[in-house]
Design goal:
Blueprint (H helix, E strand, L loop, with lengths): L12 H13 L13 E7 L4 E5 L12 H11 L5 E8 L9 H9 L7 E5 L6 E5 H4 L15
Parallel strand pairs: 3-4
Antiparallel strand pairs: 1-2, 1-3, 4-5
The protein binds zinc ion.
Family: Belongs to the cytidine and deoxycytidylate deaminase family.
Protein name: Cytidine deaminase
InterPro entries: APOBEC/CMP_deaminase_Zn-bd, CMP_dCMP_dom, Cyt/Deoxycyt_deaminase, Cyt_deam_tetra, Cytidine_deaminase-like
């Protein structure tokens, strides 16, 4: 069996490369004058749309929103509730992972908890792939409130 670039049979090599380049490019959308810590996020939806986001800071620091949640809010309000993959990037040499709040929000839109999350370093030369179940084990989700999702 051939392993594709995404290490996920649902994601073609072309889609993976597009997801990666958009995740890296989306850092340019960051509004981070305080931390100077740019984060980009791109979601590949189940219907093969790409939704980009970036972290948006605020003079009232607590009002900042992460790149992952920016992208998820854009996707959800555009009618895309099912995702095939999510990718993030920062300007670090190493790969950075989504914060705890974002893991919970990502989990909301990963019904089988197997959504792949790709974490790219600054130039995309390094990547870590983990599922949301690995990033947020024993997570609380819609099923726990009796919601039937699929
Ligand atoms: Zn976050």
């Amino acid at each position: 069996m051939t392993i594709n670039l995404a290490d996920d049979p649902r994601i073609s090599d072309e889609q993976y490369l597009t997801l990666k380049s958009k995740a890296l490019e989306s850092r340019n959308l960051s509004y981070s004058p305080y931390s100077k810590f740019r984060v980009g996020c791109t979601i590949l939806t189940e219907t093969d749309e790409y939704i980009v986001g970036a972290n948006i800071e605020n003079a009232s620091y607590g009002a900042a929103i992460c790149a992952e949640r920016t992208a998820i809010v854009k996707a959800a309000t555009s009618g895309f509730m099912k995702f095939k993959a999510l990718a993030v990037s920062t300007d670090l040499e190493t790969c950075a992972s989504p914060c705890g709040i974002c893991r919970q929000v990502i989990r909301e839109f990963s019904n089988d908890k197997q959504l792949p999350v790709y974490m790219f370093n600054k130039d995309g030369s390094k990547v870590i792939k983990m599922t949301i179940d690995e990033l947020l084990p024993l997570s609380f989700g819609p099923e726990d409130l009796g919601m039937v999702t699929n």
